[in-house]
């Protein structure tokens, strides 16, 4: 066994069907009395139902959470939090809503209860990505990690199949980067491979029948494991490329991960085939990069950057940005390598 460091992240997880009903009890357990419910405009009705469920324990709702956590939204929510004198937030939604709760916690250290409704996995990390004037920056802090996460499978039954597919691939991306991370460790590698296995088997079922409760449960379980993996390791090339495409070209988060992942993985697979072999096995294939490409195709998810808003004439600038402040990667690379990975993702060619 190679030497390693393992940090167990604190935090309580409640998993099951109908578990949202336990949110009041979870607040009581922490001695909390004045929650602000956070969500997006699209999930406003669900946020109101949650507020009703909490009764007097909810002092307000804020339904303007936005992708990539723009500073202006955080400042508005902070103002409301102050006016209402809240003692916690309850975030109901995907990574965007979780991001807003984290942004408030980072500034106030208020406790957070998160009820995730996608597979993004943000609820399991101490990472906050924020956007100011079009630039996305990331911070890590123990204050950012939610105190309680309530996974309620029933809330994911309505997640549209297209978003289920791309959000699931986004989760898988966290776990793929965990198995070859510089700071990898055996516990997180086990969780990562199990998370990939659970998602890779559940997502094709969900795409055919979004109401399949067993598949939904397996996918959410996989998303939890992949989120834990992201929270425990440092990200490499794949996440770097996605941050460039999301932050500087405004490409959609989960779709970008879906398209880039097979190519970044195939690039790294040449350097660390042994580390990626368990991923390939979890996908039921010989090669991880190819297996991820085939999975995305099977799910009917996008496979070309060209189809999700990227313009060919932006690739050179994207490669420049990615090379200027690179993340560590198991396979050293030069700009021309990055440019090639980006071109392959742009064209949607099957790796290998
Ligand atoms: P999202 O939260 O933006 O959700 C996408 C849309 O789907 C929203 O309109 C949302 O309201 C809706 N939605 C969510 N769940 C639904 C459901 N069950 N039924 C119907 N509609 C639903 O998308 P996301 O991919 O979950 O999150 C993306 C954001 O999360 C990005 O800003 C990304 O940077 C961030 N993120 C952060 C981390 C981290 O560790 N910091 C990890 C992953 C993602």
Short description:
By secondary structure, the chain is an alpha/beta fold. It has two domains: 12-156, Rossmann fold, CATH 3.40.50; 161-347, Dehydroquinate synthase-like, alpha domain, CATH 1.20.1090.
Attribute tags:
binds nicotinamide-adenine-dinucleotide, 13 helices, two-stranded antiparallel ribbon, 52% helix, Rossmann fold, Dehydroquinate synthase-like, alpha domain, 2 domains, 352 residues, six-stranded parallel β-sheet, globular, alpha/beta
Would you mind describing this structure in some detail?
- With 352 residues, the protein is α/β, with parallel strands linked by helices.
- It has two domains: 12-156, Rossmann fold (3-Layer(aba) Sandwich); 161-347, Dehydroquinate synthase-like, alpha domain.
- It contains 13 helices and eight strands.
- The chain has helices spanning 23-29, 44-54, 71-84, 95-108, 161-179, 186-208, 213-232, 237-249, 253-269, 273-283, 288-298, 315-324, 335-347; strands at 12-16, 35-38, 58-62, 88-93, 112-116, 127-132, 135-140, 148-152.
- Strands 1-8-5-4-2-3 form a six-stranded parallel sheet, with helices on both faces. A two-stranded antiparallel ribbon has the order 6-7.
- β4 (88-93), α4 and β5 (112-116) form a beta-alpha-beta unit.
- α8 crosses α12 (315-324) and α12 crosses α13.
- The radius of gyration is 19 Å and the shape is globular.
- Bound molecules: nicotinamide-adenine-dinucleotide.
- Residues 40, 42-43, 67-68, 93-97, 99, 117-118, 120-122, 125, 127-129, 155-156, 158-159, 163, 167, 170, 230, 253-254 line the site of nicotinamide-adenine-dinucleotide.
């Amino acid at each position: 066994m190679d030497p390693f460091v393992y940090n167990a992240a604190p935090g309580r997880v409640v998993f099951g069907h109908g578990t949202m009903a336990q949110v009041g009890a979870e607040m009581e357990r922490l001695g909390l009395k004045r929650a602000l419910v956070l969500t997006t405009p699209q999930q406003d009705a669900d946020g109101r139902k949650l507020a009703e469920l909490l009764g007097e324990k909810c002092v307000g709702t804020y339904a303007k959470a936005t992708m990539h956590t723009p500073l202006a939204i955080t400042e508005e929510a902070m103002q409301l939090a102050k006016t209402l004198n809240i003692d916690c937030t309850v975030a109901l939604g995907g990574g965007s809503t979780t991001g807003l709760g984290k942004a408030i916690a980072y500034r106030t250290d208020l406790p957070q209860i998160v009820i995730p409704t996608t597979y993004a996995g943000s609820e399991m990390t101490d990472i906050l990505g924020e956007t100011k004037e079009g630039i996305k920056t990331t911070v890590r802090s123990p204050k950012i990690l939610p105190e309680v996460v309530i996974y309620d499978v029933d809330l994911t039954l309505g997640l549209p199949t297209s978003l289920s597919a791309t959000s699931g691939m986004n989760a898988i991306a966290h776990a793929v980067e965990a198995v070859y991370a510089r700071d990898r460790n055996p516990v997180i590698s086990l969780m990562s491979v199990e998370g990939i296995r659970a998602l890779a088997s559940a997502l094709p079922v969900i795409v055919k029948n979004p109401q399949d409760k067993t598949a939904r449960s397996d996918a959410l379980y996989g998303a939890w494991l992949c989120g834990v993996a992201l929270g425990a390791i440092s990200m490499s090339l794949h996440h770097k490329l996605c941050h460039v495409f999301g932050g500087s070209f405004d490409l959609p988060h989960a779709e970008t991960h879906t398209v880039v992942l097979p190519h970044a993985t195939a690039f790294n697979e040449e350097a660390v085939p042994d580390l990626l072999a368990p991923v390939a096995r979890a996908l039921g294939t010989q090669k991880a990069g190819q297996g991820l490409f085939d999975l995305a195709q099977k799910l009917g998810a996008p496979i070309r950057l060209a189809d999700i808003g990227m313009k060919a004439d932006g690739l050179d600038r994207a490669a420049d940005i990615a090379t200027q402040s690179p993340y560590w990667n198991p396979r050293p690379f030069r700009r021309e390598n990055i440019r090639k990975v980006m071109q392959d993702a742009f064209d949607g060619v099957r790796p290998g």
